[in-house]
Amino acid sequence: MQVRGRTVLVAGLGVSGAAAARVLLDRGARILLTDAAEPPAVAALVADGAQWLGRLDTVPGDVDLVVTSPGWRPDAPLLADAARSGIEVIGEPELAWRLRGADAAPWLAITGTNGKTTTVTMLEAILLAAGRRAVAAGNVGRPLVEVVTAVGEDGAPLHDVVAVELSSFQLHWSSSLAPAAAAVLNVADDHTDWHGSFEAYRDAKARILRRAPVAVADAGDPVAAALVAAHPRPVTVTLGEPAPGQLGLRSGALVDRAFTDDASGVVLLELGQLQVPGPHNVVNALAAAALARAIGVPAEAVGRGLAGFRGGAHRNVRVATVDGVDFVDDSKATNPHAAGASLAAYPRVVWIAGGLLKGADVDPLVAAAAPRLAGVVLLGRDRAVIADSLARHAPTVPVVTVVSGDDERMDGTGTAAQDVMTQVVAAAARLARPGDTVLLAPAAASMDVFRDYGHRGRAFADAVAALG
Fold first, then answer.
1. Of 91, 121, 144, which one is at a domain's C-terminal end?
2. Do both 280 and 161 map to the same domain?
3. Which residues are paired to 375 by β-bridges?
């Protein structure tokens, strides 16, 4: 993609937008910048030649291309005006793909409602164990434009394979991505406010598979499995005995029957060596293994990479054991689908839940989790919705509600939010008995009380530490 001399409007200047503007400036494009308010990144970009236009609802007449932030909805006035004017709108991942050189590293791409970050970092661990110069990028945090343009002193690319996490927002604005293999982990009701319908959300996820030679999905997720069923090279993962073309479990081991000439399959890892708990993480490990095996990573390297993986922050992390009770932080479980997977990993749980449900239905989650609930502590703006569901599906489970100060989110130090979490953890500790797990898996977004899910998870860990 040649950008020198072209006028590009970068809409949204978060991490990915600022990185896109920087790379385009370095390649000789004329860069215009817009956002709802002027962020800190603007000053340095303007100093290097970009032009800050403030908030815009229409596209300036000389713009050739719009690069949008994933947070901007398609019906935003500026993007709707671009569509009416016939100006192409792309996201940062699509820009990165078009900027790749002839000797660019292949992408192994992952999407899904839940498990994306865990799976992409598992994949990175496998690739590094195989001696590949790999990096995880995309929705996981590092902008793809930085990765694809990074070169060493000899001018050669720094990476020989990229593990790419893509959200539905990013995929909506992507049209030509062709990863060497791609996975849709699962598709559950989420982000329909952004996409307009579940079908549009599902179809955005499916874009990751269009040009991938190998398509991977969880056989246990009906929507994801249906997306890959018509693909020329479908591979599914299962918690059961794998059939030909699958990766699964046999006699307590992860086994590949999709990428081997051995009809009985090849053992990748003994299940007991996997250090992250829960059936959902077994599925994540199998999906990461499938993507690595699709580009020829040896089984032994897959096993070493997975055995050494310890998980990411706020994703089913045991923060402490107090008086025989495990306290587990899965603050990243920001929707019912993720919370359900987390709850299924523990036999008897005091569940900490609540926040912003974004219209999601919690009844199936509560009904499924009811038999393992020893108690529930609720916080956040939509706590009453979960309380009503518990009254219907788990009427004998004790429930404690903590008034969360939803409109007092932060005072600059997070004191109000920390006070709320301290009350929540104290209530959960009173409900728990030795052998139980106190699980922060809120099934909801965090921004009513906390800055983000990381802030919520840190507040939980601090409150648990204070119990001692």
1. 91
2. yes
3. 350
Q: Of the candidates 238, 272, 307, which is a domain's last residue?
A: 307
**Contact at 8 Å (CB) between 280 and 341?**
yes
Domains in the chain: how many in total?
3
**Same domain for 303 and 157:** yes
- In this structure, the answer to whether residues 66 and 123 fall within a common structural domain is no
Confirm if 332 and 440 have CB atoms less than 8 A apart: no
Which CATH number do you get for residue 456?
Answer: 3.90.190.20
- 361 belongs to a structural domain: yes
Query: Are 21 and 56 found together in one domain?
Result: yes
pTM, to two decimals: 0.78
105 and 71 in a common domain: no
In a domain, 312, yes or no: no
Q: Profile the chain (468 residues) by mean pLDDT over runs of 10 residues.
A: 94 94 96 94 96 97 95 93 96 96 92 93 96 94 92 85 96 96 90 80 94 97 96 97 98 98 96 91 97 98 95 82 94 91 90 92 94 96 96 97 66 70 96 96 93 93 91
129 and 152 belong to one structural domain: yes
> How many Cα neighbours within 13 Å face the side chain of 344?
15
Per-residue HEC secondary structure of the chain comes to CCCCCCEEEEECCCHHHHHHHHHHHHCCCEEEEECCCCCCHHHHHHHCCCEECCCCCCCCCCCCEEEECCCCCCCCHHHHHHHHHCCEEEEHHHHHHHHCCCCCCCEEEEECCCCHHHHHHHHHHHHHHCCCCEEEEECCCCCHHHHHHCECCCCCECCCEEEEECCHHHHHCCCCCCCCEEEECCCCCCCHHHHCCHHHHHHHHHHHHCCCCCEEEECCCHHHHHHHHCCCCEEEECCCCCCCCEEEEECCEEEECCCCCCCCCEEEEEHHHCCCCCHHHHHHHHHHHHHHHHCCCCHHHHHHHHHCCCCCCCCCEEEEEECCEEEEECCCCCCHHHHHHHHCCCCCEEEEECCECCCCCCHHHHHHHHHHEEEEEECCCCHHHHHHHHHHHCCCCCEEECCCCCCCCCCCCCHHHHHHHHHHHHHHHHHCCCCCEEEECCCCECCCCCCCHHHHHHHHHHHHHHHC
Nearest residue to 27 via CA among 47, 43, 50, 11:
50
**Statement to judge: residues 132 and 220 lie in one domain:** yes
Domain that holds residue 116: 100-307
The answer on 287 and 234 residing in a single domain is yes
